[in-house]
Amino acid sequence: MSRLLVIGCGGVASVAIRKCCQNSDVFTEIMIASRTKEKCDALKEKIESTTKTKIETAKVDADNAAEVAELIRAYKPDAVLNVALPYQDLTIMDACLEAGADYIDTANYEAEDTEDPTWRAIYEKRCKEKGFTAYFDYSWQWAYDEKFKEAGLTALLGTGFDPGVTSVFSAYALKHYFDEIHTIDILDCNGGDHGYPFATNFNPEINLREVSANGSYWEDGHWVETEPMEFKSVYDFPEVGKKDMYLLHHEEIESLAKNIPGVQRIRFFMTFGQSYLTHMKCLENVGMLSTAPVEFNGQEIVPIQFLKALLPDPASLGPRTVGKTNIGCIFTGVKDGKEKSIYIYNVCDHQECYKEVESQAISYTTGVPAMIGSMMVVTGQWKKPGVFNVEEFDPDPYMEALNKWGLPWKVCEDPELVKVWKANED
Ligand code: NDP
């Protein structure tokens, strides 16, 4: 029924691809294209005997829009699923426009070289205007809206778990549970244990940059910025138990503030153990999280990329990770004149995921929604010209698909609410 071009063949991609292959009625043909073609071939070899989906592979440098456009013209997909890195978002969007294909991703654009003076000037202006200093924001991709409209193409941004499922939960809560949503607390809990003193569950470069940056939240129409890990809380997660969590900046706050009318406050919290935080602080203090190239023995190296080479490959954590994730949103607001609160969440078991797709739950909880978002677009359920975040579409078919494809969700009425304090007052 449809042809999907998947760009990237890392942790998230391998889950998204396997899920597409479980859903052969929708994804009759896919092409896996990435920088290292051997990885695409290896995955194809592993799964092709288990699926009716016809799989092809190709090598592509997604930093090169013309090369991606040429591949789109040759393969003629209905849509392109970008599960490479956020650095490639704009080149892949350009290629989709040039060659005529819908676009889907899981993370908003981030510049690879944050020292680039042209990028830096735009970034500094944005920091002043908007009031948050994260290196990533939606302005770059939202600026493509007119172009996608003119081309009659759909761009669906951020269909991972967070952003992605958490944003669909927000649209669903607004549609079925509230007349007005006042606050949203997004909680991302990983209760898994991989047994290493330090490792990241997805791409270390993206993960460490996100976590070591300033935190921020949205309140009364503006951003409030915090120091990194300044605010802490402890939450008793259903099926996982009590975990420390910290307030972070996160990209869906920006789109939900725009798309959930009247919302007064949006915060994002992620759980971290003490060992992770101590290692990260130490690596940051010695400069290992820097993206600025340094000379070493006559060779130029980027510290965070070198660190990535030393750390365990996130894809290798699958067999050794045990425990569960619990990710969801606590909403407060009003329905029929009465105040109410609910928690919508999913619990995912690392070992169950590994048994099914040979990945831990972090890649699983991103890869499944990447497939579902692609399905919404290629089946025409979520298709209109322009650039959209997931909460702008009808949440019902997506919520149904979550239950069907491995990420069932629950609604808890009147949940424990989040109490926050300064981490240094602990
Ligand atoms: P990985 O590093 O495991 O995989 C990235 C893949 O992209 C690799 O196969 C890599 O190739 C390929 N790639 C990188 N650069 C290029 C390029 N220039 N051209 C072609 N291919 C390229 O990352 P993850 O799978 O962990 O993450 C994938 C995406 O998912 C990221 O954008 C990440 O931010 C996002 N994400 C979103 C989440 C959400 O909930 N919304 C949660 C987690 C991740 P090679 O194999 O050669 O290195």
Which compounds are bound in this model? NADPH dihydro-nicotinamide-adenine-dinucleotide phosphate
**CATH homology group of the largest domain:** Dihydrodipicolinate Reductase, domain 2
**Could you say how many structural domains there are in total?**
2
Uncertain regions spanning at least 5 consecutive residues? none
Largest sheet, if any?
A: 10 strands, mixed
List keywords for this structure.
Dihydrodipicolinate Reductase, domain 2, binds NADPH dihydro-nicotinamide-adenine-dinucleotide phosphate, globular, single chain, seven-stranded parallel β-sheet, Sacchrp_dh_NADP-bd, NAD(P)-bd_dom_sf, 19 strands, ten-stranded mixed β-sheet, EC 1.5.1.43, alpha/beta, oxidoreductase, 426 residues, Rossmann fold
Description:
InterPro entries: NAD(P)-bd_dom_sf, Sacchrp_dh-like_C, Sacchrp_dh_NADP-bd. Keywords: Oxidoreductase. It comes from Blautia wexlerae. The protein is α/β, with parallel strands linked by helices and about 425 residues long. It folds into two domains: about 160 residues, NAD(P)-binding Rossmann-like Domain (Rossmann fold), CATH 3.40.50.720; about 210 residues, 2-Layer Sandwich (Dihydrodipicolinate Reductase, domain 2), CATH 3.30.360.10. Helices cover about 35% and strands about 25% of the residues. It is built from 15 helices and 19 strands. The strands form three sheets. Strands 7, 8, 9, 10, 11, 12, 15, 16, 18 and 19 form a ten-stranded mixed β-sheet that branches. It has a seven-stranded parallel β-sheet with strand order 3-2-1-4-5-6-17, with helices on both faces. Helix 1 crosses helix 14, helix 3 crosses helix 4 and helix 14 crosses helix 15. The longest helix has 18 residues. The site of NADPH dihydro-nicotinamide-adenine-dinucleotide phosphate has 31 residues, from helix 1.
